Each structure stands twice: as C-alpha cells, then as structure tokens.
Amino acid sequence: MSASLKRGLQAFDEVIDASVASFFSSCVHCGLCADACLFYTETGDPRYTPIYKLKPLQRYWNQHYTLGGKIASYLGLTTAVDDAELAEWQELIYNSCTLCGRCSMVCPVGNDLTAMIRKIREGMAAAGYAPEDLIAAAGRAVKIGSPMGVRLPALKAQAAHVEKDSGLEIPFDREGAEYMLLLSSMEIMNYPEYLEAVARIMKQAGKSWTLSSEAFEATNTGIQIGVSDIARTLVKRVVDAAEKLRVKTVISPECGHAYTAIRWDGPNLIGRPYPFEVLHILEVLEQFRLQGVLQLEGSESQRLTFHDPCQLVRRGGVIDPPRNLLRMVADNFVEMGDHGKMNWCCGAGGGVGANESAAELKMQAFQRKKRQISELGVDAVVTACANCRIQLEEGLEENEMDLPVLGLTELLAEHLPQREKGERG
Amino acid sequence: MKSDREKESGAIVSQREETVLQRLRRQGISRRGFLKFCTATASMMALPPTMAPAIAAALGSATRPSVIWLSFQECTGCTESLTRSHLPTVESLIFDAISLDYHHTLQAASGEAAERAREEAMARYAGEYLLLVDGSIPYGDEGIYSTIAGVSNLEMLRQGVEGAAAVIAIGTCSSFGGLPMASPNPTGAMSVNDLMQRGAIQRRPLINIPGCPPIPAVITGVIAHYLTFGTIPQLDALHRPLSFYGDTIHDRCYRRTYYDQGKFADTFDDEGARLGWCLYKLGCRGPTTYNSCATLKWNGGTSFPIQSGHGCIGCSEPGFWDAGSFYEALSMPTAAATTATRAGVGVGVAAGALSAWQNLHQRNGARTGHQEVKLDDLERG
C-alpha cells in the first residue's frame, strides 16, 4: 500500500463516527437523493446519485466497522478500497458535488449526505486525489493568504480606489471596532463595489468597522478540498486577527462556503468557542433594518428575482433576511419555483467553480438554474454570494441570456440617500 | 290408512304453512312484544330504526323455513345457550318458530325415525333449507372418530351441505375448530370453513357465529336477517357478521377507562380487582377478541365475564385453546426465555461490545496517530 493511500484510509478512520455509522446503516436505498441532486437531474447519469458518491467510504466502513463486513473481508469476499477506486471516484466526489445540501434535505431517514461528502473528501485529499486546481488554490491560500493569490497591497490599492471614488475612509486594523469585515478574493478583484457599498452602509448606520491587514480573506479552501488541518490554519488567522482587534462581530462576506467555514466549522476546527460573534453580511443588514439605521429611498421597478446561495439557506438558515431587504427597494420581486431552503444550486459551489476539470459539467448543471430564470422572465437576478454570481454571469452569457446579476448589498447601497455620499472627505 | 311415516311428513307440512308471527301468537307473544323484538333486532344488527317495520313484515309473513341442525364434535353448549334461558324469551321462541326438522337434542324422534326426518327434509326442501352446524368435524383417518347412525360426521355434513341454501356454523368448534382441534388434535378436527376451503365439502354461503357458546341473540339475529332480507348479513374476513363481531370486547368494555388511565388489577383479590379496574394484566383477551358480550351481555342482559370479575378468555377467536394461558397478559411472552436464548443474547451482547470496542480503538488510534496533512501531502506517492 502506498504511503498516500495509507494516509487516505487513516483519514477515513478518523472521520467515521457514530453519525456516519448510523447514516450508512439507516440508508434504505430509496434513491430519493438522486432527484434532489442537479448533477443527476441535468445529466441523467445515475453515477451522480449522492449516496453512490460515498461508495468508497461506505465500503471502508462496512469492511472495518461492521461484523458482517469484517467477516466478509476476513473470508476474502470483498475487495479492499484501493487507489484505482479512489481515482475513479475523484470526479464524483469533487466535480459533481457542490456540497449544496439539497440531498440531505430530502433523505427520508435524515441522512446528512452533504456532511459525509465533506468527510470523504478528507480521505480523498490525504490520499492525493484532490483536483489539481484545488491543491494549487490551497497552496496559495496557505502561502500567500488568498486562494486567488491576492496580497495585501492589491487590497490596499482597491481600498484606495474606493476611498477616492466615495470619499469614505476604508479603515484598516482599527482596534475596538464593532465589526471586522472579511472579503473574498473575488470581491477584491471582481466586485470592488462591494467594499464601497459596505463602507457607505456602515457610515449611514453610524457603526465602527475595520479590515484586518493580517486576515482579510474569508474563503477557506481547506473546507472545499477537505483538509481540516488547512481549514484550521485559515480559520485561525481570522480568529487571531479578530481577537487582536477586539471586535464584537466578524462579518462574513457575500460568499457561501466562507460563511459555513467561519460560522459553523470554525469553532469545531479550533476546538473552542469564539469570543466574538460571526454574522453573514445579510444578517448584519437585517439587524440594521430592524434597528432602523438602514434608510433607503427610491425603488427598482425592474422585475427581480433572488438566487439563494445554498450555504446561506440550507446550511445557515438565512432565508428571510434577503427577502426583507429586497422588498425595501424592489417593487417587482418574484420568487423562483424552488426557493429558500429547497433552492437549486448554481452548480459551482463547494470548490467546483475553482476546478477547471469540472468546467463542462458545471455548465451542464447550470441548465437547471437557467430554466428557473427563463421561466420567470425577470430583468435581473440578485444574489448574495460572489461565487454564485460568477457562475450565474458565466452561465447566462454562455446561454446567451442578456441579464445582469446583482449583488444584494450593492443593490441596497445604491438606494442610500445621495447626500450621504461624499459627506466625509 | 296412512303409515306412521306419512303422518309425520304431513305434520311437517302443516307446521310449515304457519307464519312465524302466527306461531308466536299461538305461544302467547303479543304483537307489541313481537314489534319490540323486531326493533331490538334491527338495532343489534346496526340497521336503521326504519328497518324494524320491514323486519316485522317479513317475519310476520314468512313461512317457517326448514332448518336442519347437525351436531358433530361438540358439547351441546351452543344449544344450551339458546334454550336454557331463565325465562322463555322471544329469541328462544323465534328459534322455536323455525321449522327445526332435525336436531339431536331437541327432536322427540329417535333412531331410524330421526334420521328419516333429516333425509326427508333434505329431499323436500333441497336448495332451500338452512343448515346449522355445531361442533367440529373429524377429518383424520377418513372421519371414523365420530359417526351417527353409522354415518361419519364428514359424510353427513357433505350430504347436508349439498342441498343447503346457506350454512351457519354455530359456535367456535364449527367456526374455527375449537376445543376438539386443540393441540395435538387427535381426530384431525376441522371447521366447516376448513373443509370448504380444501374442497372436502361443497362451498355454500357460510356464516360463522363463533363463541363458546355464542350469544343467543346473535344466532336469532342472523336468522332474522336471513328471513327478512333473504340474504346473509355483511361479514368480515372470518365470515363473522360485522354487526356483532365488528368491535373488540376491549373497545366496548365498561372498564376501558381504567385501561386508558393505567389502572390495573394485579391479582384477583387485590384492591384494584375490588375497585373493578382493568383485568388486562390478569390475561384478559378483550383487546384481541371480536364479539358483542360487552354490549349484549348474557343471561337476558344481566352480565358478562369481565363484569363478574374475570377477564375475557377469547372464546370466539380462532385457536383460542392453543393461544397460551388465560392468565398471562397479552403482551407477555407465552413461553419463558430458554437457557439457549439467554446464552444467545449474552453472546450477542458480548460480540457487539467487543466489536464496538474494536471499532472505537481503530477510530481513536487513527485520531491520536493523526499527522498533519500539509500541502506537500496532497500529492500522491
């Protein structure tokens, strides 16, 4: 057995716990998870049935943790999990799963399949079967501080642009600020208007906030690739910075898995609770709305719909805030057929978007979202996740649909009363 | 001069020409009493009250149907139930009002004359008569275990069923096999339905009225239904009339509230027993027994077993003699765990514990032996 396979199987041993054992034991082979998965519905390939993607872990568990399986492998009736099997499953585990969590919602016996995909990735990564692009992204995240290779000077440059445009200060390393804002590389490079929007909203709300020059990156490649050690390193950077600056709240940006990583996985990874709160930007904006410090004017007359980021609704339960916020400015807001906790994924989450070998498949998976959007006949799609946004933009362009995709925070900022702008120089 | 035999058959004909109502009047039952009976019968059979006049009209004009009652491996308890009432009731009189052409116990004739009456009735009313059967039928060794006038029970039943319009199995023995069929069943006893199912006798519409014995009003109710509508009543899967066997004793028991409150008698002489609490723990079969004892009651509506302080023994259910002690609660196992099962459970628990320990050991070993996965480890080799 190669050293890497041994590492991978040891990782399987580490992740197999009571929940994995009960999930595998209670699966009734009904196949309902297949119809919940857009990779199956859009391709019709039964190999994309979520529970089937877990086959190597299921076989390993059966052979090493069940009486019948132990006897069967002792008698040589089963074959051990090997390199060939893991290689064959790489595509199923990384390319055709966005960790969107829809299968976990429909499982009639309550199996959290998504959590198990996250676990099987631990073994796959340790055994050397993570996709090249994700390994490279993880390398940049650990060494440079951002999976896209964005360094602090790049951020500072963008911040300077924003300061110049808006006349607002973009604070760095301000100790004792109420909020510490995290960004995703995609927002720094592709959507810098997000930073400006937050700055203007914070100004109107009268809240103190800051960026950290030591930890501004929110995305966590360790979660996507399935290496808890790397995920922990990345979470620890944020925790250390937030503790150093003594902030009350850390704001996760418009990025789905970043929110899952820092909000839910983080405390488990570092093994202790945080001394600060973690909120998604939409949760913060909802609080501002309820406090009455988010005052907006004017409204959008164009027909809008909202694409729910999976990690936000299904893994995080943030369902009502985006709707409450949208209704402040949208006269003509329509819901998609499946929305809220049963929304369909854009097709690029969970590392799929960063994985070039999945490029074709993710566009096939996008067909579901495309149909949903065309049915509504909307003028624009609003979302709250930079990753979803890139996929929506790419997908709509590829399908020759001329629709703008808007970030919710930016859309709200556009409706701040104009006099706020440039008040402070 | 007519022979004795011709005189007897002439008597049968003249009796049959009398209607049921005329016969009852002759026995001193008033028209008002008769109508009361009809109303009661309608309500017992869960028919709407408006059906009472229809029953009265039907019974009032129906000539007495020919009934042949065959008794096989039985104790005569079913007949006793019907006839040994404290006072002659309308139920017993309407039973009397049918033309009972053959019944071992009740008929005056004996010997060859008795058998001849049966054969004549069978020939004269072929296809019309009702065949009532009590007692189970020995089927083993070609049925030699019980014969009447040299004819085996099986053969007599076979002949009787041929010309019958319908068959009513009275009592648990003829309905389900009863006591004679209890393990080890030396005579190979079977119920009427068993024999019909295996083709040993012809199939005819069959009504089972189980009970050891059955409630008299149920027997007459079913006959009244047949006379009124010319059809058999609605039956359940075991051929029992739903109007009498639709609910369990338990569901209609006056002690049901105690069951719901969890108040049980633990022995027959404890405080709970004196207070009339539920007899479930003392083995009452009420929850699994379908019958009308709790509503119609016995001895002219006086009481029923549970009211007298003893649990239901489930006498009207199939296989009641082989269903274990009458004094063990239903949900208790009927047999104690054997040493082998105890040992098996012990071995299983030990194997499970060992396996669980081994699993934990493997998992924890992997966790303590965890080596940090570094970037370089993500490459194969």
- Would you tell me which CATH topology of the largest domain in chain B applies? Rossmann fold
Largest interface: A-B, 31 and 21 residues
- Low-pLDDT stretches of chain A: 420-425
Record the strand order, biggest sheet of chain A: 2-1-3-4
User: What CATH architecture of the largest domain in chain B do you see?
Assistant: 3-Layer(aba) Sandwich
Detail the poorly predicted runs of chain B.
5-13
| Fraction of helical residues of chain A | 55-70%
Summarize the main sheet of chain A: 4 strands, parallel
What's the pLDDT, averaged over the residues of chain A?
Answer: 93
Main beta-sheet strand count, sense and barrel state of chain B: 5 strands, parallel
Distance between the termini of chain A: 65 Å
Please give the radius of gyration of chain A in angstroms. 22 Å
Question: What assembly state would you assign to the polypeptide chains in this entry?
Answer: heterodimer
What's the order of the H and E elements of chain B? HHHHEHHEHEEEEHEHEHEHHHHHHH
Write the layout of secondary structure elements.
The complex is a heterodimer of chains A (425) and B (381).
Chain A: H1 3-15, H2 18-26, H3 32-36, H4 38-43, H5 50-53, H6 55-65, H7 67-74, H8 83-95, H9 102-106, H10 113-126, H11 132-143, H12 152-166, E1 179-181, H13 185-189, H14 193-205, E2 209-210, H15 221-225, H16 228-245, E3 249-252, H17 256-270, E4 277-280, H18 281-291, E5 300-307, H19 310-315, H20 320-329, E6 330-334, H21 359-376, E7 380-383, H22 386-398, E8 405-407, H23 408-413
Parallel strand pairs in A: 1-2, 1-3, 3-4, 5-6, 5-7, 7-8
Chain B: H1 4-17, H2 20-26, H3 31-44, H4 51-61, E1 66-71, H5 77-83, H6 90-97, E2 99-102, H7 111-124, E3 130-134, E4 137-138, E5 147-148, E6 151-152, H8 153-162, E7 166-170, H9 172-176, E8 189-190, H10 192-197, E9 206-209, H11 216-229, H12 242-245, H13 249-252, H14 256-261, H15 271-274, H16 293-296, H17 339-368
Parallel strand pairs in B: 1-2, 1-3, 3-7, 7-9
Antiparallel strand pairs in B: 4-8, 5-6
